[in-house]
């Protein structure tokens, strides 16, 4: 089922959580709402679910206005950051809850409920935990149970609010892949909120980058990472070096990008910075302050003559050939850069 | 399970010793003295005292009325706690403070006030009398007084639990299609149940031992509206110390068994839900 969000606005007192947001979620896709905390992503998700009422605008589910539909009738599955499992019920009863509270004439009988719950528990690979209580499970297991519970009512839309936010890095990575696989299996329209760019880029079909109650960019993970529409997106998705044309003169002109004249800022990713030992045209002189090997990459911290810091990343192989040492003087130039006007500041 | 778990906080021996001494001085020694005094009676004499018609009637009234009052408080207390936690209204703080008044008020004052209200010529009693209901000087009056003094126990134990109940649980239930009544019955009530049981136990225990507020409104008619504590006082005034302790010992025993039973239910409940290992 598709979801259309039309100029949705929400104020909390004098704080604008959402400023006339428009967005279309296509049927069956897995969409990520990405942004820093306070950008309005969770509010938007809660408005889609019906847990929050918008001040203005409309939500269409499959072309039909659902703005005033109660959360009970919206048929959305919602997964909370802190699981919100019912502590006094077993895992089985948690998953069965949505089926048991149905009105009598649509409620499946006990054998049917049993079959469905075990089917879902098998889907999340936790059938062996059916008789445990939530307090006896690990965080990752709890979130998978929460997901099974949300899927039990056969929702038309699955909404996940920072689903992996409370878990440690390793479990997070596992669950990300698992969620991706699960989505390929059940193919329900899904929206998930995250502040972790890696998570959004890895899991989602499309990423919506939000900031201060507005949408900055919508696109596939490649699009938002490779061609960021705004400086904010550039900075939020990965590390970036800023070069002000005013300060660094001709440096902003290098690469294929046209010069934006005075007051331009060039955005360069650390892995796009090229290091040279010999002087060359359109380079800047920099001193290497620190060399740090982090897993598969080597990160160099440099400083320009005026003291501005620059970060560069090399692959291990490239570093093995060049063997830069801290304290060394090098010449840097960007392989590619994106130039934005200065007043487009963040 | 081990007797002593290693802990970063030192002082287990001191704290444990203090606990034992303190409990002994305040609870165990006085209560043992009570039981020992009772043994000055022979078994036959003891049985004669505690099985006399008047004493048995008093036991029935005390435990019966306490139980009814505690059950009333269970529901009324939950309701009051719910309103205080969930809604904001003008004067909420005053209402919140009112709940504690039965704690603070001298029980005799409460008893006299209730009697004045519920007596056949009192403000409420007069109206009820027209309906043929007499409260004061009847067992019903005992229930009223015990309900009054027991209310804060339930409210104050349930209130923090309701406050801590995550709104997300209700939102999750709503997303899954539960209506308000289902959410209350299946999510909120079970979550508050351990605290409700605790509040119930406290209110019940308090009501069993209550004296001051009851004696004014009860009328103290033997075999009808006479409570156990009053019987004990009566015996004491006649210098029948052994008789008084005999009645008290039986009361102590029943109370202890009842409270232990409720605690066991709670323990079993907590264990079943994996809150304790």
Automatic annotation (TrEMBL), chain A:
CDD domains: ABC_CysA_sulfate_importer (cd03296). Residues 3-237 form the ABC transporter domain. It comes from Chitinimonas viridis. Keywords: ATP-binding, Cell membrane, Membrane, Nucleotide-binding, Sulfate transport, Translocase, Transport. It comes from the Bacteria. Coiled coil: none annotated. One of its GO terms (molecular function) is ATP binding. The keyword Magnesium does not apply. InterPro entries: AAA+_ATPase, ABC_SmlMolc_Importer, ABC_transporter-like_ATP-bd, ABC_transporter-like_CS, CysA_C, Mo/tungstate-bd_C_term_dom, P-loop_NTPase, Sulph_transpt1. This is Sulfate ABC transporter ATP-binding protein.
UniProtKB/TrEMBL annotation, chain B:
Pfam families: BPD_transp_1. Keywords: Membrane, Sulfate transport, Transmembrane, Transmembrane helix, Transport. It comes from the Bacteria. The keyword Magnesium does not apply. Residues 59-262 form the ABC transmembrane type-1 domain. It is a multi-pass membrane protein. It is found in: Cell membrane. The chain crosses the membrane at residues 12-36, 56-85, 97-119, 131-155, 187-208, 241-268. The complex is composed of two ATP-binding proteins (CysA), two transmembrane proteins (CysT and CysW) and a solute-binding protein (CysP). Part of the ABC transporter complex (TC 3.A.1.6.1) involved in sulfate/thiosulfate import. Part of the ABC transporter complex CysAWTP (TC 3.A.1.6.1) involved in sulfate/thiosulfate import. Probably responsible for the translocation of the substrate across the membrane. NCBIfam families: 3a0106s02, permease_CysT. Belongs to the binding-protein-dependent transport system permease family. CysTW subfamily. This is Sulfate transport system permease protein CysT. The lineage of its organism: Bacteria, Pseudomonadati, Pseudomonadota, Betaproteobacteria, Neisseriales.
């Amino acid at each position: 089922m598709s979801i259309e969000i039309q100029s949705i606005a929400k104020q909390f007192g004098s704080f604008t959580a959402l400023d006339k947001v428009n967005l279309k979620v296509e049927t069956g896709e897995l969409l990520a709402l990405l942004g820093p905390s306070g950008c309005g992503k969770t509010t938007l998700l809660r408005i889609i679910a019906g847990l929050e009422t918008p001040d203005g605008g409309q939500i269409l589910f499959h072309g039909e206005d659902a703005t005033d539909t109660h959360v009970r009738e919206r048929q959305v599955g919602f997964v909370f950051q802190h699981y919100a499992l019912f502590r006094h019920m077993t895992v089985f009863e948690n998953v069965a809850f949505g089926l048991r509270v149905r009105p009598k004439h649509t409620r499946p009988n006990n054998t049917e409920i049993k079959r469905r719950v075990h089917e879902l528990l098998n889907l999340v690979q936790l059938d062996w935990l059916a008789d445990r209580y939530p307090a006896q499970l690990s965080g990752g297991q709890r979130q998978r149970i929460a997901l099974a519970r949300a899927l039990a009512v056969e929702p038309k839309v699955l909404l996940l609010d920072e689903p992996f936010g409370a878990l440690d890095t390793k479990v997070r990575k596992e669950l990300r892949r698992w969620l991706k696989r699960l989505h390929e299996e059940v193919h329900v329209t899904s929206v998930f909120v995250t502040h972790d760019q890696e998570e959004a880029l890895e899991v989602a079909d499309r990423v919506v980058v939000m900031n201060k109650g507005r949408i900055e960019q919508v696109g596939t993970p490649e699009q938002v990472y490779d061609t960021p529409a705004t400086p904010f997106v550039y900075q939020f998705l990965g590390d970036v070096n800023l070069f002000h044309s005013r300060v660094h003169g001709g440096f902003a002109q290098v690469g294929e990008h046209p010069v934006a004249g005075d007051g331009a800022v060039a955005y360069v990713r650390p892995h796009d910075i090229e290091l040279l030992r010999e002087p060359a045209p359109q380079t800047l002189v920099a001193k290497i302050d620190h060399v740090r090997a982090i897993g598969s990459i080597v990160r160099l911290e440099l400083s320009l003559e005026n003291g501005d810091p620059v970060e560069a990343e090399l692959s291990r192989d490239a570093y093995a050939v060049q063997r830069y040492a801290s304290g060394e003087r090098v010449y840097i130039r960007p392989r590619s850069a994106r130039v934005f006007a200065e007043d487009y500041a963040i | 399970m081990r007797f002593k778990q290693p802990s970063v906080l030192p002082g287990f021996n001191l704290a444990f010793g203090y606990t034992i001494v303190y409990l002994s001085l305040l609870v165990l020694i006085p209560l043992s003295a009570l039981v020992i005094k009772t043994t000055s009676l022979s078994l036959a004499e003891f049985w004669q005292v505690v099985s006399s018609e008047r004493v048995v009637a008093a036991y029935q009234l005390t435990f019966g009325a306490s139980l009814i009052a505690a059950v009333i408080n269970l529901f009324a207390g939950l309701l009051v706690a719910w309103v205080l936690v969930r809604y904001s209204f003008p004067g909420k703080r005053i209402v919140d403070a009112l709940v504690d008044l039965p704690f603070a008020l001298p029980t005799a004052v409460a008893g006299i006030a209730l009697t004045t209200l519920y007596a056949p010529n009192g403000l409420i009693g007069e109206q009820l009398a027209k309906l043929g209901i007499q409260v004061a000087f009847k067992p019903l009056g005992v229930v009223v007084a015990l309900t009054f003094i027991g209310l804060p126990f339930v409210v104050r134990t349930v209130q923090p639990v309701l406050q801590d109940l995550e709104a997300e649980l209700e939102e999750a239930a709503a997303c899954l299609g539960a209506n308000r009544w289902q959410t209350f019955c299946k999510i909120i009530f079970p979550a508050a149940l351990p605290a409700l049981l605790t509040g119930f136990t406290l209110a019940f225990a308090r009501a069993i031992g209550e004296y001051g507020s009851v004696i004014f409104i009860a009328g103290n008619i033997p075999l009808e509206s006479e409570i156990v504590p009053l019987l004990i006082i009566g015996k004491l005034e006649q210098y029948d110390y052994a008789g008084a302790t005999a009645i008290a010992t039986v009361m102590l025993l029943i109370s202890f068994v009842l409270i232990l039973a409720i605690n066991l239910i709670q323990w079993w409940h907590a264990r079943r839900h994996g809150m304790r290992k």
